């Protein structure tokens, strides 16, 4: 009987740190434990307070491990933030024989990643998009094919060295070994997008507390990634300023009474709002709250649209847009997104999650996706994993040598 491969995925967000412990089997994740804790040491996807972040990770891991009744010593962690950059590149090699071998795949991907990047940045992931054997493009599985020339088209994702180092150090200080660092866009996509959506053309918009991650997929692979420094916290801040109420009260109003879709409300549709520095409350129209939320949400999707238009991706979204992340649960957000973007929009929930009903929530999409992603990898050499470009988790060409050195130095 095969030994279970239990994986811990940690999504370090601006508002919450989410942990999912489980096993990826086929198209499902058998969740053993999960937890989330408030995040006080992260701002716009970057760690600004190590001690607070470490404390939140420890508390979330402890809670998840208690539920799973299992001790976890290593985890896969997601990385995001406005420092993330992506670029397309390609590499070409002559075939060492008339048949494509695994050594040829390793060589062509090494050639594709040979780009000059600033010294303060590091390659986080290299995502194979397709291979070209001689003049035959769109090849997903080139192994065994005959030809004299092999080309790999890839998407290279880079991040700042300091940010990645801080993520690694936080997990190490939490008593965890880092198995891998995975781009949060790709992890969330693994959890919420269907194979057809990835093939036909779809944009994933993951709206967290401090950032909005954008990932565009077509032909079964990622084509564009971007991160906007705007998220659900900005909506909360606007409510606090507009209604002169504490942030905690503003967050509660947003979740309980707020809607992003502007509708005409009755004059007597009101609510009680606590004032800053005043123990009493006052009556405010719910329409006023709706107007504040609508303005910020509309601006957010205007920025998303601008990114998609500049990247030349908006016209190719045959499957529309999928929203995920905690803010995706805001009432009326899909209607606003559809009005601004002009394409079908739905909320993305983690697919194939079994046994634990509460984890079926957009907030856990990133953490569930990390388990999916890492569970799709096996014990083969890294170039063999990448060769299966049509499999469920084809993305990771592997962490760079410098990152591996960080992992080693931390112990």
Which short descriptors sum up this protein?
single chain, 411 residues, alpha/beta, Dna Ligase, domain 1, Nucleotidyltransferase, domain 5, 6-stranded mixed sheet, 5-stranded mixed sheet, 12 helices
What does this structure look like?
- The chain is built from twelve helices and 19 strands.
- By secondary structure, the chain is α/β, with parallel strands linked by helices.
- Among the domains are: 85-160, 2-Layer Sandwich (Dna Ligase, domain 1); 195-348, 2-Layer Sandwich (Nucleotidyltransferase, domain 5), CATH 3.30.420.
- A six-stranded mixed beta sheet has the order 11-6-1-2-3-19, with helices on both faces.
Give the structure's gist in a few sentences.
This protein is of the alpha/beta class and 411 residues long.
- Number of beta-strand segments: 19
CATH topology call of the domain at 195-348: Nucleotidyltransferase, domain 5
Average pLDDT level:
86
Beta-strand percentage range:
25-35%
Assembly type:
single chain
The proportion of residues forming helix, as a percent range, comes to 25-40%
Q: Based on CA inertia axes, which overall geometry fits?
A: globular
The CATH class of the domain at 195-348, by name, is Alpha Beta
User: How big is the Rg?
Assistant: 22 Å
The biggest sheet, with number of strands, parallel, antiparallel or mixed sense and barrel status, is: 6 strands, mixed
- Provide the CATH architecture of the domain at 195-348: 2-Layer Sandwich
Tally of DSSP helical segments: 12
Strand pairing plus helix content: what structural class? alpha/beta
CATH homologous superfamily annotation of the domain at 195-348: ATPase, nucleotide binding domain
Strand order of the largest sheet: 11-6-1-2-3-19
Terminal CA distance reads 33 Å
The low-confidence runs, each spanning 5 or more residues with pLDDT under 50, are: 378-398
